[in-house]
Amino acid sequence: MSQNAPQQPPSAAGTPVRVSSSHPAPDPSTAGPAGRAGGYRGRVLVGLALALGVSLFLAHGLLARANQERAAEREQRTAAVSLLGLADLVQRAGGTGDAVRAVVAGWPGMPGSAVRVIAFSGIRLEASTFPQDTGEKAAPRKLSRDEKPLYDRGQRLRAAVETNREEGGARKPEVESELLDAGASRLLSAPVEVDGQVVGSVESLTPAVVNAEAPSWTPVLLAFLLPLAACAAAVFVLSRQGVRVAVAAALFLAGLGGYTVYSLRALDAELRETENAVSAELRTRGEKAQALITANTLKADPALKPGAWDADAMRRPLGKLTDSGAPDADKLAAAGAQVRGNATKALGALGVVGLAVLLFIGLGGLHRVVRTTVEYRQAYAYITPAMVGMVVLVFFPFAYGITLSFTDANLYNSSQPLSELWVGFRNYVDILGDFSFAKTAADGSLVFNYLNFYYTLLFTIVWTVTNVTIGVTVGLLLALALNVPNLRMRPVYRVLLILPWAMPNYITALIWKGMFHQQFGVVNHVIRMFGGEGLAWFDSPFTSFFTALATNGWLSFPFMMVVSLGALQSIPGELYEAARVDGANRWQQFTAITLPALKPALVPAVILSVVWTFNMFNIIFLVTGGDPGGSTEILVTQAYKFAFERYRHGYAAAYSTVIFGILLLYSMVQNRMSRATEAA
């Protein structure tokens, strides 16, 4: 040993000196208590900066998008006002003649705009200010072959008007809108009606210029920097981490709340500006229309109502302006309240998410996650693909379905954002609050409402209980038979009995549906062979239920047979020998040995079978189809028909969520009562 090496002094007892472990070595990354305190302060500041920055950035983006949508609405409404006002004058002029051309020539237009009138009688271009309709092509003239789309567009409008009139509603749009030149211009078309008949159409081409003022970034910076500066001062004064996080949360809410107030005021101002702009356009064109009526001696009856020109695609007045074109104060206040309500919900959601991020980072959650991820990075690398697949294929659709259940989404409003379709718990109230599943008819008989949730739930429970009972009973009996010692050809029997389970269930469903056919089915042929009459199996609820029960019973027993047989073969034979020595008969052996030993395997299998049967879509859909009249629908097929036959997507999503809740509650109660996951 080198003489320069430090010598370790021996202990008094001659034993090696042991360093006490009660005071662990300091973490070099923290540099002592001051370093740890600095790390805690940094978490709070980073959490606040991230939560507030992201929330404000998204809130600013939402405000900018709202301003853009409001400007687009302003452009569309002013273009519609111009078109429908001209259509009103053309109708008063009779749809054809010099008066129509005088109206078109006198109708004011913005730079780059043009209008034309098509008359169906004679397929004529009655009037036009389009640049290409000059010289030899000046109106009036007959439409050329390459102008057939103009005539076809007018015929579509006429068909839409007649259809809506016959149906007594507004289903087809009576004003067509199309963006041209890569969105630089808008072409609008509306019908011309004279004496209740569509005799032509009016088209206008206007620049689709959307002048949306971008919101200022100054409020964003103020709402971000002021809370952050106050938090930076507070974390150095306060010593407890929980208090620091609480202060940061309060400052976060103050910053986002301040920007929320600014956003609501900006949205209200933009809404009033839109209504004032449309109102000014209406008043200007209303005055011009009155002058043209007087100058060209057009029909003055009925009285001119410029407010009706501010209409939707069905030509229904929006009701936001009075007949004279002035903003309706009550409607404006209601629209403002709706806009503020939607904005408050969106910003409130941002606040909840941002607050969760702040708490997660400030209380050390992110630090622990990062440390754990680094420590077990190899394990996380293995499970990452599976987790990504679960998020994309399971968790996101599940979350979207639950979100959809709180909306009134259907086939006709699928293009609208979910925020405009939000109805809260109305779908759940309609589903769970309707108890009229049966009523007494005039003759005293009981009539069931097959669309009612509680009738369908009752039928689904009966369907599930009967099928599971048949499956467990038949499967267990066959397993006991196959478990007989020295049974010959046991492998052959086992393969044959598993075949129904191995075959695709939709093939089995179609085969059994054919077997129960009234005229050609083999079941009715057998009945006729013995002198009976064939039954119309799908014409009564009971027989239709029996066909589905027989089909699903055929499919369900092999699974229970395999599970029971595996559990039976694991029971030691010595138990039965001891029971026989004690004088136990076969029934006593079955109840005291076989059933308790089967319980750990059978109970989970029964839970799975209940869930599968509860949602056995294929059998009901392919065998009975819910016939007769929906009496044999189960919950999952009813939800499918609400979604894809009645097109009530939000209602169907709520229906499916209720089904999920029922099955989740059942599985939890069943597991807790049976202790199925515990070994016997």
TrEMBL record:
Disordered: annotated span: 1-36
GO biological process: transmembrane transport
Keyword Transport: yes
Keywords, sorted A to Z: Cell membrane, Membrane, Transmembrane, Transmembrane helix, Transport
Main location per the UniProt record: membrane
Gene3D superfamilies assigned to the protein according to its UniProt record, in alphabetical order: MetI-like
Top-rank taxon, per record: Bacteria
Cell compartment(s), UniProt: Cell membrane
A Pfam family this chain is assigned to: BPD_transp_1
Recorded GO CC terms: plasma membrane
Membrane topology qualifier: Multi-pass membrane protein
InterPro entries for this protein: ABC_transporter_permease (IPR051393), MetI-like (IPR000515), MetI-like_sf (IPR035906)
Transmembrane segments: 44-63, 217-238, 245-262, 346-367, 379-402, 453-480, 492-512, 545-568, 601-623, 650-669
Domain ABC transmembrane type-1: 457-670
Family: Belongs to the binding-protein-dependent transport system permease family.
Protein name, as recorded: Sugar ABC transporter permease
